[in-house]
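We emphasize that the prediction below concerns an isolated chain of 126 residues; any contacts that depend on oligomerization or on bound cofactors are therefore not represented. The input was used exactly as deposited, without trimming of termini.
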Amino acid sequence: MPQITTWDEFPAYPYFPNVLRQAVCGERVMMTRITYQHEVTVPEHKHEAEQIMLVVQGRLWAKVGDEEQEIGPGALLIVNSNVIHAFRKLSEEDVVFYECFAPIRLEYLIGYKGPDPALAMMTKRP
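Result of the prediction step, given as a C-alpha cell string:
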C-alpha cells in the first residue's frame, strides 16, 4: 500500500443496515471513515480498542460513559478501552465521521475471516 493515498482508494462496504465503512491501517493504528445513511441507531457497546472520533457532517446523539449530548461537525469523542458508548443519527443529511482505533480492530479489515463482534451485537435480538 502506498504511504500517501486518498479515501477514494478504499471501497466503502456496508457495515450494518444504513452504514458504510472504509478502513485503512498502519502497523499499530487504524482509521475508518463511517457514513450513516437514513435511520441509524448503534446500541450501547464496548471494545478493547481505544477510539477517537471526529464528526465532519451531520448531527447525532452520542453517549460515552456517563456523558450524553447532541453533537455535530467538529465534535471530538474520546472513548477509552472498554467504555460503553452508543450513537443515534439525528439529521436528515448523512452523518460522516472519522475514527482512529488502537490497537487495530482486525474484524474491520476486508477479507478478515473471523466473525465481526460489533455486527453480531447489533443484529442480536433481545
